[in-house]
Amino acid sequence: MNDAGELAVAFTRVLRGAGLDVPISATIGFTEALAALGLDDRESAYWAGRATLVQRPEHFDVFDRAFAVFWDHITGTAAPDDEPEQQEVSLATDDGEGDGGSTGSDDESIELRFSATEVLRHKDFADYTADELAEAYALMQRLRLVGSPRRSLRLGPTPAHTHRPDLRRTVRAALRAGGEPIRRHHLTRRTRHRRLVLLLDVSGSMVPYARALLRFVHAAVAGRQKVEVFALGTRLTRLTRDLATRDPDEALRRATARMADFGGGTRLGQGLQTFNDEWGQRGMARGAIVVFMSDGWDRGDPDQLGEQMARVHRAAHKVVWVNPLKVTPGYAPLARGMAAALPHIDAFVEGHSIAALEHLATVISTD
Q1: What kind and span of H or E run contains 347?
Q2: Is the pLDDT at 285 greater than 80, yes or no?
Q3: How far apart are CA 18 and CA 157, in angstroms?
Q4: CB atoms within 10 A of CB 6
Q5: Are 124 and 169 a contacting pair, CB within 8 Å?
Q6: How high is the pLDDT of residue 81?
Q7: How many CB atoms within 10 Å of residue 347?
Q8: How far apart are CA 126 and CA 142, in angstroms?
Q9: pTM of the complete model beyond 0.85
Q10: Which candidate, 313, 331, 322, 316, places its Cα nearest to that of 352?
Q11: Is 123 within 8 Å of 102 (Cβ atoms)?
């Protein structure tokens, strides 16, 4: 591994397998430090990793041992004056199976646990293979993508004492007790989940992520929640019915066949105006959580996009923008479309991996 980013990510996974909690932000910081310092100076790389990846002093020993085993082996930068130290390394998968038994030696050994699921959770969608995309769908199905709760106008039974008596249940209970209203029942306003409206950018710049995000929105629709899905390209295409089937391959085949502009240009403002005129006025966006999945690259008029985003923001309960490029070190929302939409966004989150989508599910489900 000669690339600083690949090496930093690989070493971070080793630390996580050793039990250290290393956030993505720390990995990014380590990558930037390696890019600045280079990979030739072992001591500089060591202190860069210790400063960015270790959060607690009691974890220094684990970091030192992992660094000695991993770094020198991968980079071949072991100091020539140092005596080689014998280390026993045991690889174990996430199902607990190792690659060999004990050697009977009293020397300390390092066990590096490998979790394919954990690696897949943090891997960028753009680097997925076809098999990994199928495995990722199984993880997406576990996500509970529901809107935040809101109070409904409808009433329902409650064990609490409220100012709304449930006369029907009270009378029925009284008849069972010989006509005596021994227990009084009450009503309260029910709680319902807000509608989700997902608008997915399917332009050429989003193709590396669009196929994975299509599987994500299909998992949401197949979960039988209140979800509406639209594709945004050179036109607006409603995909809710096409994604309603539980067979993911069939759902994606139908959706792809309907999107004649898949992998083409982008006119976010024009497509959003169509949504506001044809669907927003019917109340689809009113009180809903509207989620845009786009990198913000737009060939249309940015003023039109800003105006239509303002219309959506006035009607919706919350507007969330998911940008797969946000995780890129040094990223700034400088694209014309992204800059025009940003003032009308309540939450701006990443969307490049399963872990990012898990965070998105949390943002959606909370006010």
Answers
A1: strand 347-350
A2: yes
A3: 50
A4: 12
A5: no
A6: 47
A7: 15
A8: 21
A9: no
A10: 322
A11: no
Count Cβ atoms within 10 A of the Cβ of residue 42 and give its class: 0-12 exposed, 13-18 middle, 19 or more buried: middle
SS3 at position 47: helix
Q: Which of 54-58, 111-115, 307-311 has the highest mean pLDDT?
A: 307-311
Nearest to 295 by CA among 328, 318, 258: 328
Quote the distance between the C-alpha of residue 249 and its chain's center.
21
Span 280-300, average pLDDT: 88
Tokens coding 65: 């041992």
Q: Half-sphere exposure (CA, 13 Å, Cβ side) for 212? A: 30
Mean pLDDT across 71-85: 53
Q: Read out DSSP for 251-270?
A: HHHHHHHH-TTTTS---HHH
Work out the average pLDDT over 335-343.
88
* Percent of the residues in the chain that have a pLDDT greater than 70, as a whole number: 84
Among 122, 95, 98, residue whose Cα is nearest residue 112:
98
Backbone torsions φ then ψ of 90, nearest 5 degrees: -115, 120
Q: Which residues of 263-276 are buried (b: 16+ CB within 10 A; e: fewer)?
A: ebebbbbbbbbbbb
The structural domains of the chain, ordered by start, are 4-114 (no CATH), 140-145+194-365 (3.40.50.410), 154-192 (no CATH)
Query: pLDDT higher for 20 or 52?
Result: 52
Which residue in the block uniquely carries the two structure tokens 């069939």? 250
Across the chain, mean pLDDT equals: 81
80 pLDDT band (50/70/90 cuts)? very low
Q: Residue 46 belongs to what H/E stretch?
A: helix 42-53
Q: Residue 11 has which token pair?
A: 């070493």
Q: What angle do CA 82, 85, 90 make, to 5 degrees?
A: 145
Chain length of the chain: 367
- Tokens linked to 347: 């939450």
